[in-house]
């Protein structure tokens, strides 16, 4: 028996019960999807029932089956926030959408632990009924939202997390754009579930369930396709979901799929489709645009080979590196750890965690690689101050803007919108080539380092005594 409220669930029951999230046969198909990960294409994410409509021609036992799109709720959560209980009760009587009813019930129970509805049932009983009905009809968004309100838990959650931790990964729990909890060691199921619901429910209840699914699928894929996780030290579940959302937005342009299909939300996908999309997102596919690639790698926290060692070499030549107000200092860092130690890599990840935009994180990673290359090729340069990566990137964007004939403030185009347009254009540049992002970064780095470094080094060499 599940309870609603802060006390949490009783001993875990399966969120993925056969009657709700799994239809007959779906378990085998979910397992087989991992074994064929290398063959996953963006079209295959939806080829087994992802398209809207045609439900009457589909087999109800298909794991992706749905009897049609969910009816749009009359009100979104933000529109009913802080409404009086009596008003919410009246709206609930009129609401036809299952998802809309769940939004209202969530708001009604947010400040009251026990509520009896006009129908004679409790709020928890109504939510449970919607959960079961939505499971039968495969209305996945309603299933997940109701499961979150009932604080349900998927089987094998803690062991799946532990499997990734023992393979040297860190995992963070939390919704993209909000606070995260970093998990570095195995946890009991009870403690893990509490963290998931505490971190997700205030920001987006449905992610409390979706993040459980992603943890299960990540562990499964890790077992059979470990190479997909190369360059990823910290698995940020909320950011991975954001990467999946970004990928859905690109579907229409990447494969010219039906726009209605492409605009479906991750929360509306079947469990099978969620796993297939996750596998696709983890793959490094050349057909993605430069901007999409940066958004993806940034959201996945993926870095190039030898990245952490190169950052360490930068620290040996500079007083520190700074980004978004956070600084990694040369001293005592280089005296405490080596560039090959995991502890140093975690320090770098902690520095980069201050960045909240995936593509910005990725260009900062690129900037660090450029700085390292410039220092390696110019051993005479000595950087006597902290390298401010944000300023280096601003200079790179400025050089790009000038090269495009846009003088920014000099031509009266210094508005916030103009600056954002220039940044967006820079993020969309291919890295290589004479007009690639790396060329602008290299110019900015050389200009800055030569001004700070060569003058200092030459003054020492020219000193008579």
Mean pLDDT: 81
Radius of gyration: 25 Å
What percentage of the residues does DSSP assign to strands (E)?
Answer: under 5%
Question: Poorly predicted ranges (pLDDT <50, ≥5 residues)?
Answer: 1-57, 455-465
What is the total number of structural domains? 3
Strand order of the largest sheet: 2-1-3
General form: elongated
Your description of this structure?
The chain is mainly α and 465 residues long. The chain has 3 domains: 26-149, no CATH class; 157-300, no CATH class; 307-461, no CATH class. It has 20 helices and 6 strands. The strands form 2 sheets. It has a 3-stranded mixed sheet with strand order 2-1-3. The chain has a 3-stranded mixed sheet with strand order 5-4-6. Helix 3 (85-94) packs antiparallel against helix 4 (98-110), helix 9 (205-224) packs across helix 12 (271-282) and helix 18 (389-403) packs across helix 20.
Précis, in short:
Keywords: Calmodulin-binding, Carbohydrate metabolism, Cell membrane, Glycogen metabolism, Lipoprotein, Membrane, Prenylation. It contains 20 helices and six strands. It is mostly helical.
What descriptors fit this protein?
disordered C terminus; three-stranded mixed beta sheet; 20 helices; disordered N terminus; 5% strand; 465 residues; elongated; mainly alpha; 3 domains
């Amino acid at each position: 028996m599940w309870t609603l409220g802060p006390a949490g669930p009783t001993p875990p029951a399966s969120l993925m019960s056969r009657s709700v999230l799994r239809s007959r046969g779906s378990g085998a198909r979910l397992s087989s999807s991992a074994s064929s990960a290398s063959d996953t294409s963006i079209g295959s994410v939806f080829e087994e029932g992802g398209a809207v409509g045609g439900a009457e021609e589909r087999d109800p036992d298909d794991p992706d089956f749905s009897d049609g799109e969910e009816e749009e709720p009359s009100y979104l959560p933000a529109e009913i926030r802080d409404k009086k209980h009596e008003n919410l009760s009246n709206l609930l009587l009129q609401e036809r959408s299952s998802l809309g009813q769940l939004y209202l019930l969530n708001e009604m129970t947010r400040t009251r632990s026990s509520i009896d509805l006009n129908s004679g049932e409790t709020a928890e009983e109504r939510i449970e009924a919607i959960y079961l009905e939505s499971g039968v009809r495969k209305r996945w968004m309603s299933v997940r939202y109701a499961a979150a309100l009932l604080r349900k838990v998927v089987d094998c959650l803690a062991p799946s997390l532990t499997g990734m931790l023992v393979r040297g990964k860190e995992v963070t729990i939390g919704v993209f754009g909000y606070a995260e909890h970093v998990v570095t060691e195995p946890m009991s199921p009870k403690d893990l579930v509490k963290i998931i619901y505490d971190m997700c429910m205030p920001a987006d209840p449905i992610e409390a369930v979706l993040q459980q699914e992603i943890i299960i699928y990540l562990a499964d894929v890790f077992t059979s396709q470990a190479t997909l996780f190369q360059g990823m030290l910290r698995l940020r579940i909320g950011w991975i979901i954001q990467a999946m959302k970004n990928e859905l937005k690109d579907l229409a342009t990447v494969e010219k799929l039906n726009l209605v299909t492409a605009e479906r939300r991750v929360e509306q996908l079947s469990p099978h489709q969620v796993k297939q999309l996750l596998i696709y997102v983890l793959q490094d596919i050349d057909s993605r645009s430069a901007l999409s690639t940066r958004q993806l790698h940034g959201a996945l926290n993926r870095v190039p080979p030898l990245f952490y060692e190169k950052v360490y070499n930068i620290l040996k030549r500079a007083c520190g590196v700074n980004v978004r107000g956070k600084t990694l200092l040369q001293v005592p860092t280089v005296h405490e750890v080596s560039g090959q130690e995991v502890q140093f890599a975690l320090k770098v990840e902690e520095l980069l965690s201050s960045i909240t935009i995936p593509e910005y994180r990725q260009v900062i990673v690129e900037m660090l690689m450029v700085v390292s290359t410039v220092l390696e090729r110019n051993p005479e340069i000595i950087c006597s101050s902290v390298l401010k990566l944000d300023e280096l990137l601003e200079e790179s964007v400025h050089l790009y803007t000038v090269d495009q004939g846009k003088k920014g403030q000099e031509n009266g185009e210094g508005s916030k919108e103009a600056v954002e347009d220039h940044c967006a254009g820079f993020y969309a540049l291919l890295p290589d080539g004479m007009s690639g992002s790396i060329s602008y970064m290299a110019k900015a780095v050389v200009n800055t380092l030569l001004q700070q470094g060569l003058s200092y080094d030459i003054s020492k060499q020219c000193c008579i005594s």
